[in-house]
Amino acid sequence: MDKIKDYIESNKERFLDELFELISIPSVSAKQEHKKDLRKTAELLKNHFVKLGLNNCEIHETKGHPIVYADKIIDKTLPTILIYGHYDVQPIDPIELWDQDPFKPYIKKTSIHPEGAIFARGACDDKGQMFMHLKAIEIMVNSDQLPCNVKLMIEGEEEVGSDNLELFVKNNREKLSNDIILVSDTGMISKTIPSITTGLRGLSYMEVEITGPNRDLHSGHYGGTVANPINVLSKMIESLHDSNNKITIPGFYDNVIEMSFSERERLNSAPFEIKDFKNSIGLKKEHGEIGYTTIERQSIRPSLDVNGIWGGYTGQGAKTVLPSKAHAKISMRLVPGQNWKRINKLFTKHIKKIAPKSVYVNVIEHHGGQPYVAPIDTIGFKAASKAYLDVFGLEPIPTRDGGSIPIIALFEQELKSKTILMGFGLDTDAIHSPNEHFGLSNFFNGIETITKFHYHFRNLFKD
Ligand code: BES
Ligand code: MN
Ligand code: MN
């Protein structure tokens, strides 16, 4: 089937031009000012679906950003693959750290991507990865016929919690029925070592607001007589980890499923160099829960981190002020056994308990989601393994990722189907960071692997 390689080779430039057009639209879901850009992106995708000859191409309106859907049912007796991805992207700040305009994609060589990588917000997460599926479908449609039925559902609110997609899925179980869900929104071990993500962490995202006096005060006149909300909040945050770096919220670890020794061994046998890990992010020393390796800390253990903290005077020079308020956004990554709604409650209760009487506390719940674990003894996993073997010459290694895609657990609950996470990004691709990029070979190999998956899935499904 070198037809696939040939097709990619002779259409490379156009694939990139089309992807660049898609990436150039600043579809930042978190910012209201980009609402029109999200619609524009949805429309562009719908046009791609129409051009691919798909049916039922539609833009589904939601309370937030639209969902784009299309399908092609060629034969009801064939298996159906539901493809999910997201067209929204993360905000670009801090803008000053980008080498070029985040929405003017360009190609640059890097030491990890000597053939070149596409630099732009969304190049990898998830426009570049999602677009591989459109091109895989194009290849199959133009070479002969789709081997499987396909349904595509691309949303515009993944980066802000997928609230409206949740409703869409619950209301459209029949329309979305499938034999396997395919998603490219995760990573692989390295450019030459393929892996399939078999686990994602869940998420609980909270915000804490501490109020002291009813207005900002003169820090000389009042300093020493009033609880300073920033001092208080810092102390509270500090107390959320003990000396072993375990999280101190009572009940937090209650239902955490501990992995067996052999499972941990397998996890730790994946290629991983602590030296490279540290170097790639400029660290002197790693950190984390005592008793676990970095791979384990990143995937099978929960974590708690402050994502942002603010209050008081942060402008130029000095201003003597005792602030009225202090705020922090705190996220917890969760693992199998934990329930994000329960964790939200435990967090709120604990924060209220540890706050001193000298301040008022307000806890706000943001989005959350359940962790996900995928079995590896399914035909979906086998089909994916064969596809990677064809393209990379190696069987993929099952890994667990530390990130979250909350909707995946909901798919399982509502649609009763498993998801195969075929991600082609690298940890060094700087998703969510300045200078996000996606390797050209990752992009083209991804298209090829996805195409192969469809053929293998059909063949294994028959047996
Ligand atoms: N694609 C990422 C998730 C991801 C990245 C998983 C790398 C595994 C490896 C996704 O777009 C994302 O950023 N998810 C958010 C959660 C969401 C609710 C904002 C995350 O993990 O922070
Ligand atoms: Mn993503
Ligand atoms: Mn993301």
Describe the structure in your own words.
The chain has 463 residues and is an alpha/beta fold. It folds into 2 domains: 2-200 and 371-462, Aminopeptidase; 202-256 and 302-369, 2-Layer Sandwich (Alpha-Beta Plaits), CATH 3.30.70.360. 34% of the residues lie in helices and 20% in strands. The chain has 12 helices and 16 strands. The strands form 4 sheets. The chain has a 6-stranded mixed sheet with strand order 1-2-6-3-7-15, with helices on both faces. Strands 10-11-9-12 form a 4-stranded antiparallel sheet. Strand 4 and strand 5 (117-119) form a beta hairpin. Helix 1 crosses helix 12 and helix 3 (127-143) packs across helix 12.
The value of Rg in angstroms is 23 Å
Question: What's the total count of β strands?
Answer: 16
Number of domains: 2
Residue ranges: pLDDT <50 for 5 or more in a row? none
Please tell me what the overall shape is. Answer: globular
Strand order of the largest sheet: 1-2-6-3-7-15
The helix/strand order is HHEEEEEHEHEEEHHHHEEHEEHEHEEH
DSSP helix count?
Answer: 12
Secondary-structure class: alpha/beta
Largest sheet: 6 strands, mixed
Give average pLDDT, whole number: 97
CATH topological fold name of the largest domain: Aminopeptidase
User: Which band does the percent of strand residues land in?
Assistant: 15-25%
Helix content: 25-40%
The CATH architecture of the largest domain can be given as 3-Layer(aba) Sandwich
Ligand species: ligand BES, manganese (II) ion
Q: Please, what is the CATH homologous superfamily of the largest domain?
A: Zn peptidases
Text of the CATH class of the largest domain: Alpha Beta
Termini separation (Å)?
Answer: 21 Å
